[in-house]
Amino acid sequence: MSKNILEVKDLVVDYGIIRALKGIDINVKEGSIVAILGANGAGKTTTIRTINGVVKAASGDILFDGESIKNMSPNRLASKGIIQSPEGRLILRGLTVEENLLVGAYSVKSEKVEVKDDDGNIIETKRKSARKIKKETLEEIYSYFPILKERRKQQASTLSGGEQQMLAIGRALMSRPKLLLLDEPSLGLAPLIVKDIFEIIQKIRERGNTILIVEQNAYQTLKIADYVYVLEIGKVKTEGTAEDLMKDDQLISAYLGEQK
Ligand code: ATP
């Protein structure tokens, strides 16, 4: 069983006199996709923004790898490997696609790599340069998003909405996050592009990444998520595996609408 990399415990968040989160618990296992669904105003964005340090918690706790990260700044959280995308689709419009991706990798450092024999014994320890890691990560991202490779020399401002969304996710991945927070990656995109984005999110997980995703598009999200929390006015209304939630007709009609 993999461990919980993120544990949200009895989290309460207030905006002045409005209590947006009324004590929620969320666990994210390493290597999984966990989704937060719910109607408008349920508290989805507030949850992700509190985990990412943009909104302050009133009480409760947030543990990352066993350590409390509650109310740490987004920069400190980024250095621990927690990265949110998109942050309001903040791509650097005057830079090329590849320059935008490399900006995401600014904090990547050289790494120790162990070379093992067939029996798993370490035979050598080497250092991989930051430059090499960045190059490999860039190639990995181009394999998820071939269109970004085609457009790599093009100014980011000339990309379509869907391509900009891909660039924002790609840039977040360039920092090699331990936990990727995705806030409505399908927002404003055409259905075919939404399908592409969700397929890519699944591929990203298959390579060992952990993802917490907040979405309005419940149908697509349930297809890729391992575990799902449904929020209703600041509380967890229900939770379970995506498979179980899919079978719950009442839930589907009440919260998930008619989306396909
Ligand atoms: P949506 O899908 O519409 O974005 P959501 O589930 O992400 O909804 P939140 O944006 O987290 O919901 O909002 C939760 C509650 O907190 C709502 O009642 C909202 O009106 C309120 N709220 C959110 N941001 C603020 C703010 N900056 N100031 C005051 N109230 C806020």
Shape: globular
Taking the alpha carbons of the first and last residues, their distance comes to 32 Å
Number of domains: 1
CATH class: Alpha Beta
As laid out across the biggest beta sheet, the strand order is: 6-9-10-3-11-12
Mean pLDDT: 89
Main β-sheet description: 6 strands, mixed
For CATH, the homologous superfamily is named as P-loop containing nucleotide triphosphate hydrolases
CATH level 3 topology: Rossmann fold
Number of helices: 10
> What oligomeric arrangement do these chains adopt?
single chain
Short characterization:
The chain is an alpha/beta fold and 260 residues long. It contains ten helices and twelve strands. It has a six-stranded mixed sheet, sandwiched between helices.
Structure overview:
By secondary structure, the protein is α/β, with parallel strands linked by helices. It has a single domain (4-256), classed as Rossmann fold, CATH 3.40.50. It contains ten helices and twelve strands. The chain has helices spanning 44-51, 74-80, 97-104, 130-144, 146-150, 161-174, 191-206, 218-224, 242-247, 249-256; strands at 4-15, 18-29, 33-38, 59-64, 67-68, 82-85, 111-116, 122-128, 179-183, 211-214, 227-232, 235-241. The strands form three sheets. It has a six-stranded mixed sheet, with helices on both faces. Helix 3 runs parallel beside helix 6. The two termini are 32 Å apart. Adenosine-5'-triphosphate is lined by residues 15, 18, 20, 38, 40-46, 216.
Key structural traits:
single chain, 260 residues, alpha/beta, Rossmann fold, six-stranded mixed β-sheet, 10 helices, globular, binds adenosine-5'-triphosphate
